[in-house]
Design goal:
Pfam families: CoA_transf_3 (PF02515). GO terms for molecular function: transferase activity. By secondary structure, the protein is an alpha/beta fold. Helices cover about 40% and strands about 15% of the residues. It has 19 helices and 13 strands. The protein starts with a helix and ends in a 5-residue tail after the last helix.
Length: about 400
Amino acid sequence: MSDVQKKLPLEGLRVVELGHYIAAPFATRLLADLGAEVIKVEPPEGDPVRGWGSVKDGHPVWFSVHGRNKLSVTLDLKSEDGKAKLRALCERADALVENFRPGYLERLGLGPTALHAINPNLIIARVSGYGQDGPYRDKPAFGAIGEAMGGLRHLTANPGQTDYPPPRCGVSISDDLAGMYAAMALVSACWGVKAGNHAGRVIDVDLVTSVFSLMEGMLPEYGLFGSVRQPQGAAIKTAAPTNTYPCADGKWLCIAGNSDLIFRRLMAAIGRPELATDPRMANNNLRCANVEELDQAIADWTRTRTAKEAEDVLEAAEVPCSRLYDMKDCAEDPHFQARDIVMEVQDPLIGPILHPAAPFRFDGVSARDMVRWTGPEAGAHNDHVFKELLGKTS
């Protein structure tokens, strides 16, 4: 165990990953970044996500991040040898994370009942499209379905736009959300075992519910008033001015000027101080009622400047704002670089590569130190895991 890993909070926690594609591997990536020993079990041909995205020198670029800090072993879970080795891993593990379709592990003889017979304290986190029960349990699902059924995709449209379908947010958000919830629940359940509150248990996380959990007050509003929130585009219906405005260079600037004090600074900065003293704009509720006029005044100003020029003016006036960053903006931003949010690491398979930092910090451990190694080749740790950890000779 490295000195860095000993400083991380999950040092000593052993997690077996039966993950493919995104949700379960995202959960275990978070756990691995936190110091857990994650053993990623892949089929002999490797996790299918290794075939996604760009490739350098025959190696998938995304997997450098997706598989970082994990030990990779390969097993054929349909073979008796593969099943035996998985049972041996689970016997020595604190937790298992999987995202097969419900019932698949049971058909292999590796369901919770079988695994708890081997290790009564094992925490089993199961991630699926619709959950382990219910009428949709056996339906196939990917991340886009979680967005659609969980209520998010309905909200990503522009108001009144019917010519184009509401767009996805650009990343596999429902997989990532389910992964985060699975990681949080797993750590909580492991704490329960350590505290003696319970033995091993099963965690049920699904894509649809993970997205649905973000729907703020929409469900109680519907239950009480029958109201259904509709797409609002880039604006926030209950705060003004808060929107995204066009700039002279074709880029966009997000501005949040809805508090009374910030609103006055914003109006002065764009040369419209009379609006700051207009009785119709005296508070947020009144500004929401006159938001079209406000948005037009701000857009008239932003259209005369590039996004960076407008951002500089508003930042000088202490108005919250940001250009809509693309990945080039993120990678080159001095704040991202100073905090190692974007950092160059050495991948032995690919060479120098940019990695995003883990989204949490701990005193005594730098962001760079948390990347102990990059995503390995499939089966890179077979000898270490099966011979050293399990003591098997074949």
